[in-house]
C-alpha cells in the first residue's frame, strides 16, 4: 500500500505541476502575445491553439491531476499519514477550483470563438473578438494559474511529509 501511495502522490504532483505550467504559459506568453495581434490573426491563432490542445495527453493530464490528487488524499485516510492527507486534500480542492473555472468560464468562451467560423469568412472580426471577452478569459486564467500552482506546492509539501513518515517507520 505504501508503494501505491507513493506512486499516486508523485503522479498527482507531476500532473498538477504540468497543468500549473500550462495555465502559467497562457498567462505570461500566449495571451500577451496574441493581445498584440490584429483581430483576424487573434481569432485564427486562438482557434488553432484551442483545437491543438484538445488531445488525449492534455485531457489525461488536465483530468488526471484532479483524480490523482483526490486519490492521494483518499489513500492517506488511515494510519500515520494524516498530515499528507490534509495537504493532498487541500491540493485537490485548489485544483478543483481551476477545473471549475475552466468548465464555467474558459470552455464556453473558447467554444463560442470556434463557432464563429474561419477568420477569413468573418464579416465583423472585431465583434467576434470582443464577444470572446479576452480580458475576462485572461483574468480568470490568472486565478486558475494561482490555484493550480498552490495545489502543486501543497502536493510538493505532501511529498516531503510522506518522505518523513516513511523515514520514521
Give the count of helical stretches.
6
Question: What does the oligomeric state look like here?
Answer: single chain
Helix content: over 70%
* Integer average pLDDT: 95
Largest sheet: number of strands, sense, barrel closure = none
Describe this structure in words.
With 169 residues, this protein is an all-alpha fold. 86% of the residues lie in helices and 0% in strands. It is built from six helices and no strands. The chain has helices spanning 2-35, 39-53, 56-74, 82-115, 125-132, 134-168. Helix 1 packs across helix 3 (56-74) and helix 2 (39-53) packs across helix 5. The longest helix is centred in the last third of the chain and has 35 residues, at 134-168. The model has no long low-confidence stretch (mean pLDDT 95).
Itemize the secondary structure elements and their pairings.
Elements: H1 2-35, H2 39-53, H3 56-74, H4 82-115, H5 125-132, H6 134-168
Write a brief structural summary:
This protein is an all-alpha fold and 169 residues long. The protein contains 6 helices and no strands.
For this entry, give a set of tags.
169 residues; 6 helices
